[in-house]
Amino acid sequence: MDLFGLLFPKRCVCCRSTGEYLCTKCFSYLSFDTKPLCLVCDRPSFNNLTHPVCHKKFTIDGCFSAVSYNKTAKKLIYSFKYKPYLSDLKNLLSELFYESIIQKELFMNLIKDGNWIIASIPLSDSKLRKRGYNQAEILAFELSKRLNIPRKNLLKRVKDTKSQFKLTKKEREKNIKGAFKLIHNSEFIIQNVLLVDDVVTSGATLLEASNILKRNGAKRVIGLTFARD
Ligand SMILES: [Zn+2]
Ligand SMILES: [Zn+2]
Questions:
Q1: How many angstroms does the Cα of residue 229 sit away from the middle of ligand 1?
Q2: Among 34, 79, 163, 176, which is least packed, fewest CB within 10 Å?
């Protein structure tokens, strides 16, 4: 171990034991069993896709997630996003993300054909300044390398939304409406888009972002998140 490692040993983000960012015991609490739900109606959808009856012209086509949003996953994401801003966690998170997602046969079949690109949910400028990085963009970047799918920034945040935390699904939809715009040089998208975010809860953010992408020509939009509530 180098001097830095001796002075500042890695600690498990959950139980604080030294050694790794996630110890073996806490790792075992992660659940890779994510409930496949339709993002529109929140009811089960066995293939992770939006139900045909819930699907309108610009609706997201489905969503896949790596882990369920339990206490351990929450700790991981929280440590990645908030103080002390462990951007170092990106390797662990992307590795978990990638390893889980490639086990999903339906997902792998889906991306086999067609022209896919990876994009991410943008942060507002003020949040980006505060954090210094966009956690969704980092995950998208790492997944892009591992899945060998090109990445592009397609969206920008034009509205600083309040925290979605305590809002109902309907309130979240209203809150996020108009929050995104297409980045100027990506005005016309002809590809299919994998839209990456760290966590999906109500789906309102992914639904709104998909709406913008599809209005601008995206054929299919699939959400891809590290955790699923
Ligand atoms: Zn631990
Ligand atoms: Zn549905």
A1: 21
A2: 163
Residue 95 Cα distances to 16, 105, 113, 126, 149, angstroms:
21, 18, 24, 29, 16
Residue 181's nearest CA partner among 209, 204, 200, 161 is 209
Distance 176 CA to ligand 1 centre (A): 35
Q: For residues 67 and 134, state if they share a domain.
A: yes
Structural domain span for residue 145: 32-228
Residue segments in the chain with a per-residue pLDDT below the cut of 50: none
Query: pLDDT tens-digit profile of 194-221?
Result: 999 999 988 999 999 999 999 999 999 9
**pLDDT tens, position by position, 91-122:** 899 999 999 999 999 999 999 987 899 999 99
Do 150 and 164 reside in the same domain of the chain? yes
